[in-house]
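Handout, page 2. Input:
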Amino acid sequence: MKLHCIVEDVDTARTAAEGGATVIQLRLKDVPTMEVVAAGRPIAALCKKAHIPFLVNDDVEAALALNADGVHLGRADEGKELALAAGLMLGISAASIYEAIAAEQQRATYIGAGPIWETPTKPDAGSPIGLDGLAAICEAVKAPVVAIGGIDASNARDCIAAGAKGVAVVRASKDARAVRSVVDAATR
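Output:
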């Protein structure tokens, strides 16, 4: 749970794996399931070889077709019951204490809390919750919380100090080694 690297391609996934990613998540927005499966095959193989859990974003059917370890779903996304019935790790997004408690009640394996800060990779993510919002979510739930949104090596330590068990990065996936080093130091 320490470092979730969210990727769109196998080259970034490889860099993330070599840099110490503890989870690799394929996120392709607004792409049909069969295209997600096609793009995900080499990433799934890379993750299997590296013994890194592989998740698919927003598409339970693609996760099942790829024999992924899990799926990450937004608050309003369907498929939570199917993911759990199939034995998949289930991550659910939350931007408030209420949403985090609801995610935990839906048996989330982990909660993706954020955005912590503004992020160009997901302009529709809503207002940043900041470190205080992250700390409140971490305090309110027992499920592990992974912070997301504007995170890189310069601020990952602050997320861990606020109570997160790990961080999720998109742009900083290419700098996974530096982020992992900071997270490791913060969790000692």
